[in-house]
Design brief:
5 helices; globular; Gamma-glutamylcyclotransferase; Hypothetical upf0131 protein ytfp; 11 strands; five-stranded antiparallel β-sheet; 30% strand
Length: 223
Amino acid sequence: MLLVLSSLSCYRSQVRAGVRWDMANLGGEDLRSQEGESFLYFAYGSNLLTERIHLRNPSAVFCSVARLQKELKVCFSCMEFKDFKLDFGNPQGKTSETWHGGIATIFESPGDEVWGVVWKMNKSNLSSLDKQEGVKSGMYVPIEVNASTQEGKEITCRSYQMTNYERAPPSPQYKKVICLGAKENGLPLEYQKKLNAIEPNDYKGKVSEEIEDIIKKGEAKTH
């Protein structure tokens, strides 16, 4: 079934320039000098893994583990209150040539939760991040989300969401990258169990050497 989330077309807002960095939110690091030059990115899929995000976005620095908040800012000043759930699918009905299965997205789902990693990134990597997420082709759209850290601090981040996709399970390799990233960065154990319980597809082929390499490095870090 092809899912078209047309109501999310208003999510195409870019992360605002000059997001205010609260040092208390992010472990006391003085980020005010970076204001206007950096942005926060909430990752919930393959970019949970450090080796993965650094392939295309070397400026990414770990800030915090966080949970998507019910409050999602959309359409300029209006607000909606949502819970979210992790899902997997083929964007625009096309299987990923990189991952050979469904890739991650989020959708509104009362009572569910999505945990992820907040990365601080230089704006010089904004175009490379958009390219990785297929923004130009309409694979994902950029959205602005509120996230709550494990310490209870609220922060505003850039993230991405598929609005037109066909549900499909991830490949074993894609699932592994997500689970390795969750373990590496210390996502809640119960959430890690949910990720580990995801049923992958039956793809038994290979992925690129680049992806195989980040999996090996991720395994070495987490064992």
